[in-house]
Amino acid sequence: MGRSVNDWDSRQTFGTYLAKSTSKSAAIFRRYDELALSNILRLSSKLTDIATSIKRIHYLEQDERPANAAILDQKLSETLKEYYVSLDLYSKMLSFDAPASRTVEAIQKWLRLKKINEHDIEVEGHGYPDLISLHAAGDNDLLSRLASTWLKVFFIDYRNSKRNEYYYLDERRIRRVVTFVGMVLAVGFLVGAMWVLWREGDDMIAKLATVTGFVVGFGIWVGFFTSAGRKEVITATAAYAAVLVVFVSNG
């Protein structure tokens, strides 16, 4: 039978393994959404009851008010503070990024190898959708996933990996390589389009078709192969199209 991560020795072993992560992206924990939201709802319900009691007391005469009215005010203050603190902390927890699936899988393989179970981490698609990475979460864009899958050997963190059993990837190295590749592709889209447009001479129809093709290709690359958001994709594509239009109009 495997050891529980709640066991002291297991916690120390697991903590040592996570601490060796060069990018600290292995600091993965659960946000416990159900428990957090249940707690917030509990406090909200409690405040509703207090508000009802206060409203009822408000319409009573001074001599008719119960002796515990002051205690009710104190209870309101404490519960309201706890409610606001819970909302603030949960809001901060929601700002953390989800971990890369490759990092989660590496940790799971290590746990299985060490026969440590009952840790609150599961491989993506098998429960626990509320996992968060405390620092430097690995990018989950298509380019990063392709690099970590097909070029895994170049990104293995050998300090935390064991050959033929489990591999931990250096997320910082992946990010640097993906950023460099992205820069090269961006320059390639711009320079390549200009060279093609220059070769087409005065054929305006061919130029318009070329601009359309390159703009669509650029938009697909930025939208599906990078971690850019919707606004960033639209802005980048519009800027790229504007540059090509200016080049064509001046050509």
Describe this structure in words.
The protein has 251 residues and is mainly alpha-helical. It is built from 8 helices and 4 strands. The protein has helices at 8-19, 33-58, 69-94, 101-113, 142-150, 171-199, 204-225, 230-250; strands at residues 3-4, 28-30, 116-117, 131-133. It has a two-stranded parallel sheet. A two-stranded antiparallel sheet has the order 2-4. It is flat.
Oligomer: single chain
Spans of at least 5 consecutive residues with low confidence: 122-126
- Helix-strand sequence: EHEHHHEEHHHH
- Walk across the major sheet and give the strand order: 1-3
Number of helices: 8
Strand content: under 5%
Q: Which structural class do the helices and strands define?
A: mainly alpha
Chain-wise SSE layout:
Blueprint: E1 3-4, H1 8-19, E2 28-30, H2 33-58, H3 69-94, H4 101-113, E3 116-117, E4 131-133, H5 142-150, H6 171-199, H7 204-225, H8 230-250
Parallel strand pairs: 1-3
Antiparallel strand pairs: 2-4
Helix pairs in contact: 2-3, 6-7, 6-8, 7-8
Outline of the structure:
The chain has 251 residues and is mainly α. It has eight helices and four strands.
